[in-house]
Write a structure and sequence with these properties.
heterodimer, A: alpha/beta, nine-stranded mixed sheet, 16 strands, B: alpha/beta, seven-stranded mixed sheet, four-stranded parallel sheet
Chain lengths: 366, 451
């Protein structure tokens, strides 16, 4: 019998919409994301989770009306669940807070939500450590440790969790994030069901000696840059060090592009990248994994969409990370968003860790 | 079933074998780092005794081993050749596996084979102190023992990464009367320059060599001693291969595959060079393999080019496989294989296609070492474990093909001072380092900086 029987399940239907259009989060910019053509991500992810959960309907499921859970449960073929409330409007943090309060009142065993870090923060603001929480990743940034690696693995955790562990819920200030300043905050401590290594650890920040390693990586990469190749630089301080070495501007948490030592695109979204790739067909993508959590692609850099990766070629992905970061990141994860692209990756991946130095790291495809 | 093949003390070779005499094409000249002229004996005189310089440049096929050197080599030589029946059984291979065990020397590795003659020739030349470098500590231990035998002082610059990892190696050197200093050190100009740039560097063999050479060049009573790379070191190690050939005759078998790990190249040269002679004369199919770490893949990924032997550029400029003299390999546990270059003689035979090379990651290498320990009993050095990994792969290939090859490898040293490395392996804490050669090769304008 599963450890957790009474499930409070809800979906944040707008989570993840900012990613593909380069908005680094969806908090407060839902309308802008929609104008840029963003499509809902969370409902599809929620469906994947529910389908993976399969016939394990010994569970009692409580949910929210409409697109916050009821629709997805129906589409996945679930019956017999209880709708506790139906929000009047969608996509406001107060909806999340209200539904979590109703879950608390219903004395459920665990909250399972499909959303991003912003949603996680809102959930934990209500539950604190009173209830275990499991996140199904749908958002732009997945810095919190309560997220499963994928919807399918979330289902496995829910069915086979053996214990409940404490973890940090982190988020970054999206306003300063968009201005290029990384400000990671601890929003609270939550409890989450645990199964082996599937849970994502909270994102770590690395300072001090890390800086020297970043400089070494930057020195090495700048020495091997070729004049006929466009370099797409992912988010983070390691790739920012490369820009700094080249004396070109960079977006700390955005995607930039460099050609022949000049910045040819800053804070690019998927469309911007595809346009650049039409001009510069030969390209390489340089990415650094999210610390501890280990995602190289598919979390926090949705601008590098399957279309972008396909155009560049998965073999032209260069992963960089300092040894200090890797010390807390035993496994790397990659979600290329497309099963065909996934075929290009094996069980290991080379990570540049210093000047002419690399490590072979275990890779898991999410 | 005979497990050990033992030679009598009288069978210890009376001559060293010099591969230079049999090379199809001569070694390219080395150059003086200051004048850029071909190295002349006088260029080496400030740091080496005359007889070693003569050996370095000799084209004679055989060079007599002084009786006093032989007597001291007899402390542990001839070393045994083992038939690895238990490993064969474990691998279910039809291959016959033999290993020459050099861990029987008091210092625990093959390094003593050259330490003793080097100390002897320096003593004969009136030198009072030897300065040297050591990576994993095997060479430092061996030279400490040898200088003790011939009543010389000894200063060992030990790569700091190893110095911190292996405290008992320091104790060995101290027991034999040597002084062991972590490198880079503030005692030399080369060391100070590195520390100024990077106070936390784990160091490298290239840096430690610079320090020891500087020490020798700036002290009248002091010479330098190198435990690998140079021609005379490969020469002294030839006792390994010569004995092995005699022992294989006792076993009534001929080697099909010869395997050794390669860092600077000396233990590999010791076993392989007498067999290269055989290959050149009558057995062109003899397969000879040098095995190195992916973290420092000099033969498999390096360039055959002129480069310095050290970081500071104090050594002669030699034609060899190199990753660039300023490349500092990551701190893998096989510290003895962390060298950017390769013995010019080993490089030459690789370039001529007389030998081939393979590279492995740390974790697969330690897995092989554990397999070896659990079958043959000996806990080998992480460096040696590279050879064992290649042996296991060859033996498994024989299982698949049904071939009954005879595989011979140099078990160059024991791992009794490397147990913390085994501990890291068992704890899952060994990173698999590698050299991003493809990225470097793609960028033709930014090849490793060689001279």
């Amino acid at each position: 019998m599963a450890l957790l029987q009474k499930i409070g399940f809800f979906v944040n239907p707008v989570a993840g919409m900012g990613g593909a259009v380069g908005l680094k989060g969806t908090d407060g910019v839902v309308n802008e994301a929609k104008k840029l053509g963003a499509q809902p991500v969370a409902p599809k992810r929620a469906l994947r989770f529910l389908r993976a959960l399969g016939d394990n309907h010994g569970l009692s499921i409580f949910t929210c009306g409409g697109s916050m859970g009821e629709d997805e449960l129906k589409e996945a073929g679930y019956t017999g669940f209880s709708v506790l409330s139906t929000p009047q409007k969608i996509s406001d943090a107060t909806d999340t807070i209200d539904v979590c309060r109703s879950f608390l009142a219903a004395e459920i065993d665990v909250i399972v939500f499909c959303g991003g870090d912003g949603t996680a923060r809102d959930v934990v603001s209500v539950t604190s450590d009173a209830l275990p929480v499991l996140g199904i990743p749908a958002g732009v940034k997945m810095y919190s440790g309560i997220f499963a690696l994928s919807p399918e693995k979330g289902a496995e955790i829910l069915q086979h969790a053996t214990e409940i562990a404490e973890t940090e819920v982190l988020d970054i200030d999206e306003k300063s994030y968009r201005l290029g300043t990384l400000s990671t905050s601890l929003y609270g401590v939550a409890r989450t069901p645990v199964l082996g290594t599937y849970r994502q650890a909270g994102k770590c920040s690395f300072f001090g000696d890390d800086e020297r390693s970043r400089q070494e990586i930057a020195r090495f990469l700048t020495e091997i840059l070729r004049d006929d190749t466009l370099y797409i630089l992912g988010a983070g301080s390691t790739t920012a060090a490369v820009s700094s070495y080249l004396s070109v501007p960079s977006t700390l948490l955005g995607i930039d592009a460099v050609y022949q030592g000049e910045c040819v695109g800053q804070d690019l979204n998927e469309q911007g990248l595809l346009e650049l790739l039409r001009t510069y067909p030969k390209a390489k993508i340089i990415l650094s994994p999210i610390g501890a959590q280990g995602f190289v692609l598919g979390r926090g850099n949705q601008q590098i969409s399957p279309a972008v990766l396909e155009k560049v070629g998965p073999e032209n992905l260069i992963v960089v990370a300092t040894p200090q970061k890797l010390a807390g990141t035993p496994t790397l994860y990659l979600d290329p968003g497309n099963p065909d692209l996934a075929l290009h990756f094996g069980e290991n991946i080379q990570v540049i860790t210093g000047y002419a130095m690399a490590r072979r790291m275990p890779l898991v495809l999410a | 079933m005979q497990t050990k093949y033992l030679l009598d003390e009288n069978d210890l070779p009376k001559r060293w074998y010099n591969l230079q005499a049999d090379l199809p094409n001569p070694l390219p000249p080395s150059y003086n780092p200051q004048t850029k002229e071909p190295v002349a004996p006088a260029d080496l005189a400030p740091i080496f005794p005359e007889e070693l310089i003569r050996q370095e440049m000799s084209q004679k096929r055989y060079i007599d081993i002084p009786e006093e050197v032989r007597e001291n080599l007899m402390l542990y030589r001839p070393s045994p050749l083992f038939r690895a029946f238990r490993l064969e059984k474990e691998l279910k291979t039809p291959a016959k596996i033999f290993y020459k065990y050099e861990g029987v020397s008091p210092a625990g590795s093959h390094k003593t084979n050259t330490a003793i003659p080097q100390a002897y020739y320096n003593m004969k030349a009136g030198i009072e102190r030897l300065a040297t470098e050591t990576g994993a500590g095997q060479w430092g231990s061996a030279l400490s023992l040898a200088t003790q035998i011939f009543d010389l002082e000894c200063t060992v610059y030990m790569v700091r990464g190893s110095y911190d990892q292996k405290p008992y190696r320091k104790m060995m050197m101290q027991t034999w009367g040597a002084t062991c200093i972590p490198s880079p050190s503030p005692l030399t100009q080369s060391g100070r320059a590195i520390l100024e740039k990077d106070p936390d560097t784990p160091g490298s063999l290239g840096i430690a060599i610079s320090e020891a050479v500087e020490d020798a060049a700036t002290h009248e009573n002091t010479n330098y001693s190198l435990g690998s790379v140079l021609n005379h070191v490969c020469l002294h190690q030839s006792v390994v291969g010569q004995e092995t050939k005699a022992q294989l005759e006792m076993a009534d078998v001929e080697a099909d595959v010869i395997i050794g790990c390669v860092g600077g190249g000396s233990n590999f040269a010791g076993l392989a060079f007498p067999f290269i002679k055989e290959k050149l004369e009558k057995r062109p199919d003899l397969d000879i393999i040098g095995v190195e770490p992916t973290a420092c893949p000099t033969l498999t990924k390096g360039l055959y080019a002129y480069d310095f032997g050290d970081v500071a550029g104090l050594t002669p400029i030699m034609k060899m496989y190199t990753l660039g003299h300023d490349f500092i390999p990551p701190s893998i546990h096989a510290g003895g294989l962390r060298y950017h270059g390769m013995a010019p003689l080993v490089s030459k035979v690789h370039q001529e296609g007389l030998i081939r090379s393979k590279a492995y990651h740390q974790n697969e290498v330690f897995k092989a070492a554990v397999t070896f320990a659990r079958s043959e009993g000996i806990i080998i050095a992480p460096e040696t474990a590279h050879a064992v990994k290649a042996v296991i792969d060859e033996a498994v290939a024989c299982r698949q093909s049904g071939e009954e090859k005879t595989i011979v490898f140099n078990a160059s040293g024991h791992g009794h001072f490397d147990l913390s490395s085994y501990e890291a392996y068992f704890a899952g804490n060994l990173p698999d380092y590698e050299y991003p050669a493809e990225l470097i090769k793609e960028s033709l304008g930014h090849l490793p900086r060689v001279v």
